[in-house]
Amino acid sequence: MNRSDCRALCRQRPEECPGRRLNVSDVRKRGPFGSRRAAGAAVGAVLLGGGLIAVPAAVGADSGPPVKVPDAEVYEPSALPDRIILVPTATPATSQKVTWRSEVGGEYAQAQLLEAPIALGDVRPAEGAVRTVMAGSTNPVTTSLGYASVYHQVEFTGLQPNTRYTYRVGDGVNWSEWIDFTTASAGFEPFSFIYYGDMQNYIDSAGPRVFRQAFADRPEAKVIVNAGDLINSANSELEWGQWHAADGFINSQINNISITGNHEYSGGRLSTFWQPTFPYPTNGPDFGDAATNAAMRNTVYSVDYQGVRFIGLNSNVQSLAPIMAAQTAWLEQQLANNPNKWTVVTFHHPVYSVASGRNNPTVRAQWGPLFEKYGVDLVLQGHDHTYGRGSTTASRRSATVHDSTVYATSVSGGKMYDAVASNWVDNGADQMSVGQDMQLYQMIDVTEDSITYEARYANGEHHDGVVIRKNDAGERTVQEIRTPENTVGEQVAVDTTTVGFRGTVNVSAWGYDPGETVNVYVRNVERGQDVLVGEATADELGRVLELPVTFPSSAKKLSTQMVYLESVNQQITSPEITVNR
């Protein structure tokens, strides 16, 4: 057909015009099934027949504008397991708890376990290598979205310390993926853990990047500590679903140590999700009656993990004197009879609040003295939606060093309050670092002789940090992570600021690496001249203590001198010293 014949056909029978553009409705009318798929295929065929290459019209291309997926559909359970979490037992070297959710009844809920193989799939486990364990308990939870969820719990026992295992959970037909975890060592072994303050708000939007960045920075972490207020509404199925989704697979392979905040309670009652999700050790205090013990179960407990005693407390009951007293007595027992070198305590309401207008005098009065008396290393808290970190004023040894408990309050979610220092200053504490309007996570690395604590922003940048060192005698230093600003200036302590001719001054300094070499000078302040008078070596805690410094004959009578200590890491001076006779 030539061009003129084609134009004539298009005028007389336009529906048969070879060059005519077809729309989906035309094809639907002409197609044998009237379906969108047929329409798309026909459009694609016409375009290709005309010498053009095009993608067929998408299914649903002519649908209406998008609508929000109903909350009841977002996290509705199925037969497939989800919300899988590792929960530590009181014996994490030889046992492990796992909880998960599904819609399946408890008679079928089960887990399978084997020592981690080099491959699965086409590679079948050896005969007898896989152990099947039926769920030990099943807890239906009626949700706020109108459907029931069923939470299952299994405990693997008889495990080998420091051994990698692979497990999956399900109903015997519908299974999770295979997941790996490693049991704790029987004794001390270096490890890392992650600490979060309140998530609570913007869980699905702002929260995931914090959790994922923390995992990217410490993928080998053995424990995650949550200091309460994981969610905003205690019994919100949607928010609990968001929290589990935000952490993704991470909770299924790293042990979770969480404590309750005020938002895990509603009307004075613990969230119906808490105990089915977090069956922590039942080694907490006896509160004197069955009802209180049941209500407090899995909210106060301890876990010894590779040389660290983790203690979880419930600060939501601070207004209930008998319950608080029982908890405080139990806390002292846990601290007094602690075989571990390191101790970490976590609860929700801070000893020294960071947010404006907040104060927890009962927590501070009952627990604060015990932390100092028994040498607790880290106290990890939440509630204030700001950041603060410091130690008691009495424990300050220099501009950058304390020697007592480190108190930290942090926030991981997107809800923010204004930060103040008054609650610290008014109650005998130094607020060494403060921050507001920031989402944070904390990485904590434990070795035999030190704990390194670092807070980072959601984008992975450094915010704050300290190194805690402790010797076998229990002596300790808490040293700020070094900066160019905090490694210079007047930080050398002296026992006197007046001395006779060729007299001796005892000096002390902190903040060194263990074993670091320190050159000792006497400096003439007026002339700026230094005279090398000796050398010192920092001890295992990075200290130079009571070092006698004898002034040289060049330090004339009535002159003004100072002691100057120079090392690879610090260049610090003493106050001015007068040679008075």
UniProtKB/TrEMBL annotation:
Originating species: Jiangella aurantiaca
Q: Which PANTHER family match?
A: ACID PHOSPHATASE RELATED, PURPLE ACID PHOSPHATASE
Does this UniProt record's set of keywords contain Signal?
yes
TM segments? 38-59
In what residue span(s) does the Purple acid phosphatase N-terminal domain sit? 81-183
Task: Kindly indicate whether the keyword Transmembrane belongs to this entry.
Answer: yes
Q: Which SUPFAM superfamilies match?
A: Metallo-dependent phosphatases, Purple acid phosphatase, N-terminal domain
All copies of the Calcineurin-like phosphoesterase domain together span 209-387
Keywords (alphabetical) are:
Membrane, Signal, Transmembrane, Transmembrane helix
What's the source species' lineage?
Answer: Bacteria, Bacillati, Actinomycetota, Actinomycetes, Jiangellales
Q: Mind listing the GO molecular function terms for this protein?
A: acid phosphatase activity; metal ion binding
Q: InterPro entries this protein is in? A: Calcineurin-like_PHP (IPR004843), Metallo-depent_PP-like (IPR029052), PAPs-like (IPR039331), PAPs_N (IPR015914), Purple_acid_Pase-like_N (IPR008963)
Q: What is this protein called?
A: Metallophosphoesterase family protein
